[in-house]
Specification:
- The chain has one domain.
- It is built from 3 helices and no strands.
- α1 runs parallel beside α3.
Length: 89
């Protein structure tokens, strides 16, 4: 569980960094709108950072795992809302 929590937290930070680079137009691989990309960047970087804190400093791997799953659940919900509400032409 310890290594899984650390891997998920670091993966969230990596994905958040990629979304952040897409949001500032350094990396141009995003298929989503700029607003969605910024939301995903903040979500993954924020909760990834909290997961790293719980993994290394507070040493609570259960909380780190729950926080690590958070951006995926919230991100899927935001993606669903974007698919319903935006016009893709």
């Amino acid at each position: 569980m310890k290594y899984l929590a650390i891997i998920i937290a670091l993966l969230n930070l990596y994905i958040g960094l990629r979304f952040l680079l897409n949001a500032v137009n350094i990396l141009q691989t995003s298929k989503y709108s700029k607003r969605s990309t910024i939301i995903f960047a903040l979500l993954f970087l924020g909760l990834g950072g909290i997961g790293v804190y719980y993994s290394f400093f507070a040493v609570n791997y259960t909380a780190a795992s729950i926080v690590g799953a958070g951006p995926w659940a919230i991100g899927l919900f935001i993606l669903l809302i974007n698919l319903i509400s935006e016009d893709y032409k």
